[in-house]
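FAQ: What does a multi-protein file look like?

Like this. Sequence, then tokens, then the next protein.
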Amino acid sequence: MADTDTLTGTLTGTLTAAATGAPDFSGWSCPMPLRDYPRVVMGHGGGGAMSAELVANVFGPAFASATQAALADSAALTLGGARLAFSTDSFVVRPLFFPGGCIGDLAVNGTVNDLAMSGARAAYLSCAAILEEGVEMSVVGRVAQAMGAAARAAGVEVVTGDTKVVESGHGDGLYLNTAGIGLIPAGVDLRPQRARPGDVVIVSGEIGLHGVAIMSVREGLEFGVEISSDCAALGGLVEAMLAVTPDLHVLRDPTRGGLAAALNEIAAAAQVGVTIVERSVPVPPQVANACAILGLDPMYVANEGKLVAFVPREHAEAVLAAMRAHPLGAQAAVIGECVAEHPGMVVARTALGGTRVVDLPLGEQLPRIC
């Protein structure tokens, strides 16, 4: 039986260096997937427990700094008296084009959203492209045009970048990396550690659309209706929420690992419990049907245009109304609350009146979704 720390992904362990500089796994607590995998596997990039262990035990100790402690979607920094949000992300989605978007607008929107989760309005982006030898120039052009259109729609400029080419067979067409910076308004302090018992948990709309859209085209599956990605820039929605009150506690975009991973990460960071009502989570019928056929849980399926918010109870009704007045929050719903019980754990009340633990996923049900 896994203990509470394992269930929430707050796994412990230390990383020391031997004389050769190799990691010493002997001090890590069990179970530790990294100990069982001497080589990187796809699960290490899935946004679940294996990703968290990789960061906590390999990259974290190597880069140790006070500013990385929050481990949020973007880092909040102070520079010259200004509060900045800074984020970077790499995109390796396969296929490059999918219903509702492509790797180009996904790269822009993904980084804009990471900044928005700190309350920042994105100002500037960088773009680095790794192209595979032999990829059609028309494909590169379509991706670049999509990036430009997405940047204009989000009100952000792509101001610097880099291009590299790798040999045929080593790049899967193309990969993108984007980094972004934006200003955090005065009085805004959005961090997973700020979740408090009594907070109301709100999700901005229907979940699971992006992951199922990617799966449908990748695997050639048909579900009777086309399912499109929810890929969108959330900056405007966040501004509408902050206009109600700057005292929102936490925002998170539930991408890899889905809503389940986002809730678990917040619960672990703040050491609070989260209780959700399963039937209140908005799952569109097409996603529910596809997941039922494939044996997947929509709670773990990736999104690219949704957010989850932890809002003080006294502001929840007004924030929900503001979200529903925005096109990207029209289907926003209260799905649960933050509680003092079962700290670090997410629990769902089922339609049958029971409860179940919503674990942090180990890896990713469907890799390469962003």
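And here is the next protein:
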Amino acid sequence: MTAIEAVSDYVPAHRVPVGVCLRRYDIDESRVRLYEHFFGFSEVRIDSSATLTDLLVAAMSRLELAAVGPHVRYVMHARSMPVVAPYPVNPLRQACDAVGLGHALTFSLTHHACASALLAIDLAGKLLAAEDDPRARALVLTGDKAFTASARVIADTGVMGEASAAVLVRLGGGHDRVLGYATHTLGRYYEGPWMSAERSTEFKEQYAEALASVILAATECAGMAMDDIRLILPHNVNRMSWLRVLRLLGIGSDRLFLDNLPKFGHCFGSDSFINLRSARTQGRLNRGDRYLMTAVGLGATFSAMVFEH
């Protein structure tokens, strides 16, 4: 069974008020207030001096890799951006070389956008299952640099911050085991932020139902119901949209971990793993608790994964 052995994250110290971010892209004041007061965003973290390689190395360096490093067979960068550097620059290879993982097979997953991280966890388990060595490990990395206006602000959804996470995956293990996974792509909305106004409105109307549906599918895959889920560790997007999802699921807001949304914004595929670290620190998860991660990638891919802590 696939399990998370360890997880680390890097969140830059530099804070930028959401209003400052939005005004840089000529977002009018009424929309700024909407993001701040209704969507729930307050600030984002940005490290303008750091490259993508720096972000990945910062997260990887916080893992204890000395003992397991030689057994890391695969390193996957689950990213939202299809292109992150000009050829022949390879941030992933640079990051692996910097922390002593130059021997690992490296590749990126992008086509699920912000949901690529959950896809990578699932794929890591399948790759490790094909290995003969029970010591084999896979490392899933998340983190993107938002270097365009369309990457920094997703209309009515989120303001993007910069952060990264490193997730060490193994087979077996005594905690954070994957119990179920579901993903569904609504290809009709493949244009993402470049959809027509009519198509965008249609997507917003279907969003909550599509996300609730994939959450229920993941819990069913795990052989359980929503009553068995202690906590949802979400992607940090529009607080109002989450209220609609909770109503459809029939659960209260006390089971949704949104503490980091105002502080960090939406950090691409890193949100759920940063939220996992925070929930652990706050004592929100006890051994044996079942919890669920969610992600929605532009395109539009809806994903959910159930774990046992």
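Q: Is there any per-entry metadata?
A: Some entries carry free-text notes. For the entry above: The mean pLDDT is 94.
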